[in-house]
Write a structure and sequence with these properties.
Elements (H helix, E strand, L loop, with lengths): L4 H9 L2 E6 L4 H8 L5 E5 L7 H11 L5 E5 L5 H9 L4 E4 L5 H11 L12 H7 L3 H8 L1 E6 L2 H5 L1 H5 L6 E4 L1 H9 L8 H16 L3 E6 L2 H10 L3 E4 L2 H15 L13
Parallel strand pairs: 1-2, 1-8, 2-3, 4-5, 5-6, 6-7, 7-8
The structure holds 3-hydroxypyruvic acid and magnesium ion (MG).
The site of 3-hydroxypyruvic acid has 6 residues, from helix 10.
């Protein structure tokens, strides 16, 4: 089976970059994948992407060496299994607030006896190779998103669920939960929670990941010790690029907004 390079990259370089796709286009997925990111996440939760579009985007990503990942809409095992069958080499599952949800996510990602994934790897087999079934439980990465006060309170029991490879922090939802307002760079209690989560996850030798608004924030998170970072999503990068070009011309921008989320 084709190896999942993401863990190796973290070992070799200390950190990996993970692009985040919300635009339903195989062309933009291909374009981003050719930029040199170590992994690319197709986001079905907040992206404008349905399953059929996700398949074409995973195909586009597999024209490069980047590890294809997907964020499902929820911890629904049906969609998780479908995305893995479509060739995702890992999932970043949103809103994993307790150990029961974490167990359901792991079960959807692992073939028996470790889990309950149904057999039918379809495109996973084309991408991974003929021995996909024998190695999928090891190669497929399971990230759970910790993004609420409840999840932080349950962190120890969530991280005790066997089969979790890493945690991805959603700072916007975390900030919403703690501070009542979303922020990709939370302050106060939410910022303390981010550092608490990172240290707890690192102590267990699991991967520490976090969504960031842009490259500068991603750099800050790497310096803080995070291993997998997302320097903004495709829509925010596109919008910022357009605004920058217009500003370079001295033109007023339509709404003055910038970073997206
Ligand atoms: C969050 O910041 O809450 C996220 O889920 C990032 O995508
Ligand atoms: Mg979130």
């Amino acid at each position: 089976m084709r190896a999942n390079r993401l863990r190796e990259v973290v070992k070799e370089r200390g950190h990996a970059t993970n692009a985040w796709l919300s635009i339903p286009s195989s062309y933009s997925a291909e374009l981003v994948a050719h930029c040199g990111f170590d992994a690319i996440t197709v986001d079905l939760q907040h992206g404008m992407i349905d399953f059929g579009q996700a398949v074409t985007m995973l195909q586009a990503i597999s024209s490069t060496g980047a590890t294809p990942l997907a964020r499902p809409q929820s911890s629904d095992p049906v969609q998780i299994m479908q995305l893995l069958d479509a060739g995702a080499y890992g999932v970043i599952c949103p809103q994993v607030d307790d150990a029961d949800i974490a167990r359901a996510v792991v079960a959807a990602c692992k073939y028996p006896p470790s889990g309950e994934r149904s057999f039918g790897p379809a495109r996973g087999l084309l991408y991974g190779g003929p021995d996909y079934f024998a190695h999928a439980n090891r190669e497929i990465l399971v990230f759970v998103m910790i993004e609420s006060r409840k999840a932080v309170q349950n962190l120890d029991s969530i991280l005790s669920v066997p089969g979790i490879d890493g945690v991805y922090i959603g700072p916007n939802d975390l900030s919403l939960s703690y501070e009542g307002t979303p922020s990709s760079d939370p302050k106060g209690e939410a910022a303390q929670a981010i550092e608490y989560i990172r240290t707890q996850v690192a102590q267990r030798q699991m991967l520490t990941g976090i969504f960031c608004a842009d490259g500068a924030m991603a750099r800050k998170r790497v310096d803080q010790g995070f291993q997998v970072v997302t320097p903004g999503n495709d829509a925010a990068i596109l919008k910022n690029g357009c605004l920058q070009q217009l500003a370079g011309l001295g033109n007023a921008t339509a709404d003055g907004g910038g970073s997206g989320y």
